[in-house]
Predict the structure.
Amino acid sequence: MIVTPKILVRIVAIAILGVLLQLCFFSRVTLFHTSPDMLPALVVSLGLLGGSMTGAVSGFSIGLLIDCLLVEPLGASSLVLLSTGYLAGLFRERFEIHSSLVPPLLCMGLTLFAELGFALVQVLLGVDAPVSPMIVRDILLKSIFAFFIGWPIYLGIRRLLRPALVEETKVRRRKQPTVLGT
Amino acid sequence: MIGSFVLLSITYGQSSNGLQNGVSTIFAPLQEGADRALKPARDLVNWFDETYDAKGENSRLKSELAKARTQAVAGQVALQENAQLRKLVELDNGPALAASAYKEVTGRVISRSPTPWHSTVVINLGSNDGVKVDDPVLSGAGLVGRVASAQASTSQVTLLTDHTSAVAAKVVPGGAQGVIKPDVGNPEDLILDFLDASKNVHVGQDVATSGWAVQGFSSLFPPNLPVGEVTEASIVEQEASQQVHLRPYADLRNLDILQVLTGGSRG
């Protein structure tokens, strides 16, 4: 991804919009007694499109913003989302995305990773109450939801960041008609 | 990654800091706008979920209604007796209720934590509205939690389901006292712990805040705020671990309008 100032503004806008959407919509709706978490899917999409550095930086920033808005210990969400974004970016750099099912499957897998990460961080910081087995169900359902919301998120972000994507530029150039005799 | 660890080490245990206060103040109008704009879509999704649950809920409510009718009759009798007794001992009706010393401020939930580990919500009331840290927070159905931190125009509310929450409570009628702790990850279940093993608690009994005060120390919550209903009270569990399970009256998953009790004397 070629990050120009214009693209940077778009990424910041996507991050802010994503955080607002999570806090004001996804966190406050319940499906099968669980609220979907779109932030790992958002970070995974940015990592898949921009690589490990973009994924890590956007994960850290989104985590920091969410910790600020929820007045929770700074750094916990950043740490988890940074790792999630980095792993998504690393996947992008190491492997080719051949199937359109790869982004939603990665969103699902890395949401599971992020939710387990949140749990690990919380356990390390100390849990002062008994933990219900329902939390496992909650984590698994969040991952399944991520499969369905990850797809439109990935496609939407790819569309918004299209001018910065190296491969998309190549494809567009390839599709230009050849003019003979000039 | 190092930055995350440094931030975590510095800010862990603090109620809020300058950065969080600043960001919350800047984003508060945006969050409030987004909250209002997304409400119809949110209601639609929640409607599907509620319809899915409605079948089971219907039979439970029917049995609760039958029980409530019996209780209402008993309540009316008790009210009459109470009024007569008050006249006898010349008790004033007002100051007897500690909660009446509080001023109620009503606000809306503008955001909610996405993880089940931190059961917190952010409301559109802050120190400008007289909200202070540790003020009790209620919904129409009962106690919801307490204010964990207050910025100028927003406050963070720690719900009863947060792992840090603990509320002194009593079972009514009966008077068995204990501490309500969450079953982290399950917002429909709370644990009333440290119960007196000699007092038996039964399914269907109500649980309210006990609101104690001893030698200058007092509970954060005034007495008699409704919290929930006992759902599981096996004799074995009561004797072995001195705890029973209860279902909170407030729907802690779907909170919208909340009331903060500001001012007043604790306990």
Summary: The radius of gyration of chain A is 18 Å. The mean pLDDT of chain A is 87. Helices of chain A lie at 5-24, 39-50, 52-69, 76-94, 102-125, 134-160, 166-175.
